[in-house]
Write a structure and sequence with these properties.
The complex is a heterodimer of chains A (264) and B (302).
Chain A lengths: L1 E10 L7 E11 L4 E6 L5 H9 L6 E6 L2 E2 L5 H4 L3 E4 L13 H9 L10 H12 L18 H13 L5 E5 L7 H17 L3 E5 L3 H6 L3 E6 L2 E7 H5 L3 H12 L6 H7 L2
Parallel strand pairs in A: 3-8, 3-9, 6-7, 7-8
Antiparallel strand pairs in A: 1-2, 1-4, 4-5, 9-10
Chain B lengths: L1 H26 L7 H17 L3 H25 L4 H19 L5 E3 L6 H9 L8 H20 L3 H11 L1 H6 L4 H27 L1 E3 L6 H16 L5 H24 L7 H34 L1
Antiparallel strand pairs in B: 1-2
Helix pairs in contact in B: 1-6, 1-7, 1-9, 1-10, 1-11, 2-3, 2-4, 2-9, 3-4, 3-9, 5-6, 6-11, 7-9, 10-11, 10-12
């Protein structure tokens, strides 16, 4: 499904600030996988997503989706097969356009001169009602009026209205209050399961990294430190993970956020 | 009455530029500084074609010329790494020479005896009851066509993509649409309307000089912002388009009234600049005002 072969990316190359964000990184994600990704700040998690989405072209290595080499494909072309959610709920939708207009752009039905049709509206209404937030009755309202949680849920809908080959979630619930975060996470699970979407999710919450998905990837300094699947993964514990990190990386796992979320 | 009529005619003609800016400034989020030059470009090209005896072809030629100028502006900022404001300035400067070249090395063209769409309309309407208002009818027709076109276009998929480009370009990319494409298409269309506006004005006043478009950007921006305050920003697109036209008319009306109060004609551009400043910084200062008052109180107490 997604094949990443020995990619590297160095920021500020050739200067004192040179930082190797991805270091000869390889990963093979199979169809239907739900991979959770953890790692300290600066481990290269977001850089990995940026590389997959084409926000930059990697310095070396190759990226394939379904066997097709996309290493040099521009980002907006890759977006056809990749859906992505960011931590910032404002990044995924256009505030001055209405809910249905946002969905219409994401759905991209018809030609360049096509307008929102009746069938489109029915589809959007049905999709929005799945969110259980009452958005289906506010389709003409500008998105700027929605709350962060509603906007993130809408973005999730937009990213999956044409089921992507792979869905990248970059801490997409971290900026929401706990109740809303749980709701959005539930929605994510439901949608991913329903359409059997291959999914990668960065999280700082080690417990949900263990609970969710079938595979867990731990990153450190641009490399994969740990990659566990199935039985091995479900038997993991938070303290076990912290110990594993220590033995593998040879240093303490230092992220306040991760240690804090440890306790709940 | 005559004054109001003239204000309506001039206002509606400049409203085409206002609608162009609505597309580029309000929708795409690009402040197109080539507007002045493009307005003159449309006027000059239109005049030259009209002088050769084709008043209708003049309209199309002017719009084509405007689209070409818009394409260059857009190409510079999307493909050549030129800053968006700078590319407008560069094209504007370049157009000055081109405009004089188009007018045959002259800075003034006279169309007193030339057939224009206005003289055509006059001949067509002739003695019917619409006859005396032939100028207004032509202008209303063009304005209505442009408004209807934009109202339709901005709800199509490409129109939505153009609106999203100014609102959230990241989202445009993640919808598998190239923002470069939307910027190019948007600026081509908006500049073709700016040129149309210039072409109409040239045929209306039966002459073109190379400075016909100078200050047009500020005037149109002032009209656009006036329209915004009357209609509001979060209204449906069609309302906002009508608001832009209304803004252009109100601007002309205020200006005409000021002229009646013995304000000299050369003050037009200063007035438009002041209106733009008030319209943009007004809401900003309003937001800052409570903080300012708190600071003032604190100083008073200390």
């Amino acid at each position: 499904m997604l094949d990443i072969l020995n990619i590297s990316k160095t920021f500020n190359a050739g200067t004192q600030d040179a930082k190797k964000a991805l270091d000869d990184f390889s990963l093979r994600v199979n169809k239907g996988d739900f991979v959770t990704i953890i790692g300290a700040n600066g481990a290269g998690k977001s850089t990995l997503f940026n590389a997959i989405c084409g926000n930059f072209i990697v310095d070396s290595g190759k990226i394939f989706i379904d066997g097709k080499d996309i290493t040099f494909t521009p980002d907006h072309v890759r977006a056809k097969s990749i859906g992505r959610l960011f931590q910032d709920p404002m990044r995924g939708s256009a505030p001055n356009m209405s809910i249905e207009e946002n969905l219409a752009l994401a759905a991209g039905h018809g030609g360049w001169l096509a307008r929102i049709s009746k069938q489109d509206r029915e589809l959007f209404r049905e999709k929005l009602s799945q969110l259980g937030m009452g958005l289906e009755d506010r389709m003409k309202q500008p998105v700027g009026l929605l709350s962060g949680g509603q906007r993130q849920a809408l973005t999730l809908m937009m990213a999956t209205i044409n089921p992507p080959k792979i869905l990248l979630l970059d801490e997409h619930t971290a900026a929401l209050d706990p109740g809303t975060a749980e709701k959005v996470l539930d929605l994510t699970k439901r949608i991913v399961e329903k359409d059997n979407i291959t999914c990668m999710m960065v999280t700082h919450n080690m417990q949900s990294a263990i609970d969710l998905g079938n595979r867990l990837l731990m990153m450190n300094q641009g490399k994969a430190l740990l990659d566990v699947e199935g039985e091995d993964k479900s038997s993991l514990t938070v303290s076990g993970l912290v110990d594993l990190f220590k033995t593998k990386a040879g240093s303490e796992l230092q992220t306040d956020r991760m240690l804090l979320t440890d306790k709940d | 009455m005559d004054l109001i009529l003239t204000a309506l005619e001039l206002g509606l003609m400049s409203s085409l530029t206002v609608l162009a800016l609505f597309l580029s400034y309000s929708m795409l989020g690009v402040c197109d500084l080539s507007t002045d030059g493009c307005f003159t470009f449309g006027a000059a090209v239109g005049a030259v074609v009209a002088l050769s005896g084709h008043p209708f072809l003049a309209i199309l030629a002017a719009m084509g010329a405007g689209a070409l100028s818009g394409f260059v502006t857009a190409f510079l900022q999307t493909k050549m790494g030129v800053d968006s404001l700078l590319s407008g300035i560069v094209v504007n400067t370049g157009l000055y020479s081109i405009n004089i070249a188009v007018m045959g090395n002259s800075s003034l063209l006279n169309m007193n005896k030339t057939e224009t769409i206005f003289t055509k309309a006059k001949a067509l309407l002739g003695a019917s009851f619409l006859g005396p208002q032939y100028k207004l009818i032509v202008i209303v027709l063009f304005t209505a066509l442009v408004v209807v076109f934009l109202a339709f276009f901005l709800k199509t998929r490409i129109g939505l993509a153009i609106r999203a480009t100014g609102d959230n370009p990241d989202m445009v990319r993640s919808s598998s649409i190239n923002p470069v494409k939307t910027t190019i298409i948007g600026l081509c269309i908006s500049n073709s309307f700016t040129a149309l506006s210039g072409c109409l004005l040239a045929q209306y006043q039966k002459s073109v000089n190379v400075n016909i478009g100078s200050g047009m950007l500020t005037i149109a921006l002032a009209s656009l912002l006036i329209g915004n305050t009357f209609i509001g920003k979060r209204r449906p697109i069609t309302f906002r388009l009508v608001g832009a036209v209304l803004g252009a008319f109100i601007f002309r009306l205020v200006y005409t009234a000021a002229l009646r109060l013995n304000m000299p004609a050369f003050m037009l551009k200063l007035v438009s600049s002041v209106i733009v400043v008030i319209a943009i910084s007004g809401p900003y200062l309003q937001k800052r005002f409570p903080l300012f008052m708190r600071k003032l109180k604190k100083r008073g107490r200390a």
